Amino acid sequence: MTGNQFSSGLWRGKEITWRSRAPFILEWSPTLHYSHGPTPGEAAEIVGRTQKSVVRALATESASPPPAKMVKAIRVHELGGPEVLKWEDVEVGEPKEGEVRVKNKAIGLNFIDVYFRKGVYKAATVPYTPGVEACGVVTAVGPGLTGRQVGDLVAMLVSQWAHMRKSRSFLQTELCLFLLPLILLLLHPSCSRQRLEFQEPHIKSVNEDSLNYKTRDNHILVEPGHTVLVHAAAGGVGSLLCQWANALGATVIGTVSTKLKAAQAKEDGCHHVIIYKEEDFVARVKEITSDNGVEVVYDSVGKDTFEGSLACLKTRGYMVSFGQSSGAPDPVPLSAIAVKSLFLTRPSLFHYAVTRDELLGMAGEVFGNVQSSVLRVRVNHTYPLSEAAQAHEDLENRKTSRSVLLIP
């Protein structure tokens, strides 16, 4: 028997029929013809669950696994500039224990991708496939995994530490496999079988969740009356930080590089916008705050702004460093912090999502604010996934603003 021919057998006096291939589920009908069953020479164990009227035929371990799928992906064979990003064929097989397979619909691009590509953050091996966030549809679920099913719309966030281990998790590809919990997988509240809009705010789960812990951390609670400084205010995270800090009642000061980005920052809730190429942001912040300084600085730029950011803080202010797009900051002596009893932190999102409850708590608040329009994520730039190198180059050269997406 070959191809789609059927085998027959009896169970409790009823005839059942199966097609020759791997494990399958048959639902009762007068004559059963469903899905896949055992190949010739395989033993089939028929197990009935009368209440649900289901018959399962389980293939033996000798069953041949389905052939791997060949898909396109971005690959990095050596560290360096955008030119090291290659568009190649890769194999994606069936999910194993604890894995899911997802067809990507939109992939977020952030500076963390640049850090891995340059070697600022270390990947486990070279070659590797970059990418830490995406949105897609579950196409297969491995054994032993519950709570997810084929067809689910999910948001995905790969732990940066997954890249430092021999993980099968990667995102900048058409089809991907994820091993939980190296991947933080969220069922999207917008999951609708009739209408799936992938180029919408909620695909930027990494940006949204990261701003959640930056603005809502127990030690840095932004509240009415506070003044905050947000560098790169027109960037992916910066634009969201401005909106959320504004919604929390703070006065928001933002720095940007161009007049176009200044207009965008204003739209996103900045009360005062500083074009740092035209004026000294430290002097301007002191002027705006009557020389009092700000409660919090959110700095993703690093080397070019770090020292000035410390100077903008008031006594007992908080310096939140969460990126280094201009390079790593120079070492800071403790005496520089002691002058005003400042607090300096370099948080990682993954330390704030150690448990499932922590992740769901942050994500729930973020998605709720997106759905209620407190947060509006604007996708200003989309690139075909095959043009990831161009997207990286534009991001590094500050030609982009707000959210940047790669579309498979």
TrEMBL record:
InterPro entries: ADH-like_C, ADH-like_N, ER, GroES-like_sf, NAD(P)-bd_dom_sf, QOR-like
Molecular function terms, GO-annotated: mRNA 3'-UTR AU-rich region binding; NADPH binding; quinone reductase (NADPH) activity
Pfam families: ADH_N, ADH_zinc_N
The organism's place on the tree of life at top rank: Eukaryota
Keywords, ordered alphabetically: NADP, Oxidoreductase
Record GO cellular component, one term: cytosol
SUPFAM superfamilies: GroES-like, NAD(P)-binding Rossmann-fold domains
Domain Enoyl reductase (ER): 80-405
Key word Zinc-finger present: no
UniProt name for this protein: Probable quinone oxidoreductase
Organism for this UniProt entry: Prunus yedoensis var. nudiflora
